[in-house]
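Researcher: Predict the fold of Restriction endonuclease subunit S.
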Amino acid sequence: MTRRPYRQIVVFARGGGWGTDRQVDGHDRVAVIRGTDFAAVRSGRTDAVPRRWEKRTLIAPRRVRPDDVLLEISGGSAARGQSTGRSLFVGPDVLPAFDYPVIPASFCRVVRFDPEVVDPRYAYYGLRDMYLSGRAGDYENQSTGISNFQFERFLDAELLRVPPMDEQRRIVAVLAAFDDKIEINDRVVTASEELLRAEFDALAVTSGGTVPVTAMVEFNPRTPPPDRDGAPYVDMAALSTYVAGIDSWSHRVPRGGSRFRNGDTLLARITPCLENGKAAWVDFLAPDETATGSTEFVVMRARAGVPAQFPYFLARDERFRGHAIRKMAGSSGRQRVNAAHIAEFLVAVPDPARLAGFGERADAAFAHLTALRAETRVLEATRDALLPELMSGRLHLP
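Model: Structure tokens for Restriction endonuclease subunit S follow.
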């Protein structure tokens, strides 16, 4: 079976840009996709992708087209064991979701493949196999604390099995079926949260005045200690900036940190995580199980008579987060907010009937979203187990 270096199948590769944050003569507005945006773009969220002004003459050669692949070439996270080399396939639904031309950020590269030799999505799955297997780390070097993907070395050293086109397309059909279902689940989760967020915002319209937030929410509440032999542990990387769920955690012997249980909300209290909107809803634990997490979390829990999801949507509220950000203190780059200062926030008191109705709908929706995310984890694990078998040819599709 033919194995080719990527240099033989890549027909175009170009680094991205960052432009400027304000309008300048000779510059046009663009959307700039970073490596950190890959997951959100896959799930249909484009609002967090930065909009910048790029020099007009540089847009056309960098502009992303359908069937391109965006490859992260700088960044990564040694602390989390995350190398560079993450990739995003630009399917038919990606670009129409943007209001401006799309270019990759300066830490990424747009890669285009020869469609006469390789199905572009098949080549993308080769890149994904490279990343998940850890081979992407073989092409890294360190420069001033930043990991850099050695693209030229990768082009010559990384080999892709290139079977006949009909076999490539059969493999793509199988793997894409998983990806498409995962994407549908993610989009349902995102849309459902947006609807509930709009309903939460509307509760303030029926307000009967304001009370201190502590009348409705407990901050860092008392929680039974975790199992001394080991308990689930959540780090900051597991918190999303746009959806509630926690999809990655580890187990470790408790060594302090925050404590929480199902139904609690985690709010990042340190810069830049708080400004970026990192928050999460805890729903993955066993009944009565206590988990631990980063010391940089504020744990929020609804008081009796308040919907359990109320603190989560409060954590997503721009006014509440703005209050928390203004209360941050500390040295530049390491500022934090204390729970006691967050508790000074005044919250509108909703109409009791509407608040109860919101709670019923949120309960039903979050139960459904929890089930969807559990299904997604199974789909991802199955796809990632099939990926190396199909790409290597060890598993043959008739």
